[in-house]
Amino acid sequence: MALSGKKGLVIGIANQDSIAYGCAKAFRAEGADLAVSYLNAKAEPYVRPLADGLDAAIIEPLDVRVPGQMEALFERVQKDWGRLDFLLHAIAFAPKADLHGRVVDSSWEGFAQAMDISCHSFVRMAKLAEPLMDKGGAMLTMSYIGAAKAMRDYGMMGAVKSTLESCVRYMALELGQKAIRVNAISPGPIRTRAAGGLKNFDAAVETAEANAPLPLATAEDVGALAAFLASDAARAITGQTCYVDGGFSVVG
Ligand code: NAD
What we know:
The chain is an alpha/beta fold. Helices cover 43% and strands 15% of the residues. Helix 6 (155-175) links the parallel strand 5 (137-142) and strand 6.
């Protein structure tokens, strides 16, 4: 199996629809041992049974806004495993008023919060993961086509994802000499809880379905790509944004 003997940390499972869960299932099916986080005590009853089903060895809370919590999670990984082979960051948040409004009208606080939770948290995670990946590794995050093009109703999150994709390129450049690869995955629209918070999300799904050459990707399809990118078979791939969207992004 492509990930057998590898240890991976999965951030972003909220429920069984989460893209992170689709990825975690694929990682596990390929033989990886997993550590899984949940947002807080309210989320734990939804995430823990899924993590148990994945035989997760480590199940810890992580709200990236809480000082010290990310460090505590990585300390646990260090203590139990002493190393990490791959990391999946699949989280995003923006306050609704800013997310639903124009970029032009976005508030300083809302923009900063969205950037912190959805983008800079990946940078902070990479810093903590780097010393654990002393024999190389793979870091993955989730983007969206709204990073590359101005998509209706994606607004401020498009600017945030653009920055995330740029961070991926710079981090790939900086970490390549340690054989650590950094990539973004860009799925098409998938019905998840976070996606439900976007304005007119159903219309985005319908447009993509009507135009994509193939059926839109499921969380399991995203998982298949994530498992490949985490594996040694992807050893020459870094700094990329890899689309898994039924081809929607190439159609004009
Ligand atoms: P989801 O609601 O299942 O997952 C979002 C996750 O973000 C949740 O687990 C939530 O707990 C976590 N999160 C939010 N604030 C957090 C914080 N402060 N600290 C830690 N975790 C926090 O939705 P999803 O669609 O699976 O989203 C996962 C990723 O995929 C996001 O980055 C999203 O932008 C991206 N994405 C989603 C789609 C889509 O159509 N669903 C398409 C492209 C990219």
